[in-house]
Amino acid sequence: MQLAFKDEFYRRSGLFFNIVPHDLEGHYLEMALAGKHTADEPLLLINIGGGSTELIVKRGTEIVDRHNLELGVMTVLKDFPYLNEPLATHSLDEVVASIKQQLPPAVHEISHAIYNGGELTYMQLAGYNLEPNTYLENDDDHPKQISIANFAVRNDEIFKSVELKALEELMPNDPLWMHGARPCSAIAQAICEHYGIEYIVPSDSNMVHGIHRQEFRSVVLSGSFRKHLDYILTVKKQLTGKGVHILSPRFEEPKNPSEDFVVFDGEKGMAPLELERYHLSMIDRADAPGGYVGTSSLIEIGYAQAHDKRIIFTDKPTEFMLNTLPAEIGL
Questions:
Q1: Does the pLDDT at position 268 exceed 80?
Q2: 241 and 124 part of one domain
Q3: Are residues 138 and 166 located together in one domain of the fold?
Q4: What does the DSSP assignment read for 206-267?
């Protein structure tokens, strides 16, 4: 059904329609929140939803821990149904204490957390005591930070002293957004206190920001290694420089550059069929196969199409059937 819809969309519009799988969506969010964090110290990413919360610990460029919790804005409102009275009749301390009991134990020493979901805009509108972000100084998407102590003080005031109507008036184009403000802030505070966070970096970033920073995690480059190896290696270098993992080709030095089927140093003793099967297996794992289209690549393109993979041509193909495929032009 999904493939049929994509084919029909391409037939009618001439545009490729891509459905982002859940794991790739997670990658985009990670890139949006912490794509510029490369320090060798842990950073906590907090993504709070209606019925769940995702916690990601990133060290350098690696994800070292991840928790998906059955805890979100709606679950807190279910447990504390009077949070959205004009003034909350549940205390912030009571709500935070309840949430902490649902959190996994801390195993990392973490000083900073990035907290997303329109929180930068919210904290600016709601008068939180924000200061310049000295932790991610070169990240224009995250200009501010707040100490957990100041965050907790303003949360308590919004529970006790700021009426819900006043919060709604801060966001006239979407006043109902503010109905999640108190429970969401309580969740974030509980998480940060539980894990010993010192500073929160509020974020408005979303998946689109992550796509802009790095669209692909991994790709396979298909093409005639005999005719166009230099060009393919240039594309490989460009993508590697952007942080993309090249699954295939794995190596760069051809052992037999003049023969019909190129074998690289590092692939000695492997038969052409074995190498081709490896290449096809990497397409299964890739976000997108791309590269020059030669005759030797047709089987790989067909395999990618059959497995509903994104196909990206570096140049518009001349073959009629290739132009009928839902595909993109240009890396």
A1: no
A2: no
A3: yes
A4: -HHHHHHH-S-SEEEE-S-HHHHHHHHHHHHHHHHHTT-EEEE----SBSSTTSSS--BTT-
Say how many domains are in the chain: 2
Write the pLDDT tens digit of every residue in 196-248: 999 999 998 877 665 666 778 788 887 777 677 788 888 888 888 877 888 87
- Note whether 274 and 223 are same-domain residues: yes
- What is the reported pLDDT for 152? 98
Q: Are 125 and 170 in contact, with CB atoms under 8 Å apart?
A: yes
Percentage of residues of the chain with pLDDT beyond 70: 84
Nearest C-alpha neighbor of 48 from the set 192, 261, 170, 260: 192
Parallel/antiparallel/unpaired status of strands 62-69 and 53-59: antiparallel
Of 157, 314, 303, residue with least CA distance to 232? 314
C-alpha to C-alpha distances, 182 to 25, 49, 90, 179, 198, nearest whole angstrom: 27, 13, 11, 7, 20
Q: Which residue range is the domain that position 128 belongs to?
A: 2-211
Task: Measure the CA–CA gap between 158 and 147, rounded to whole angstroms.
Answer: 17
Whole-angstrom CA distances from 169 to 120, 121, 160 are 17, 14, 17
Higher-scoring residue by pLDDT: 139, 202: 202
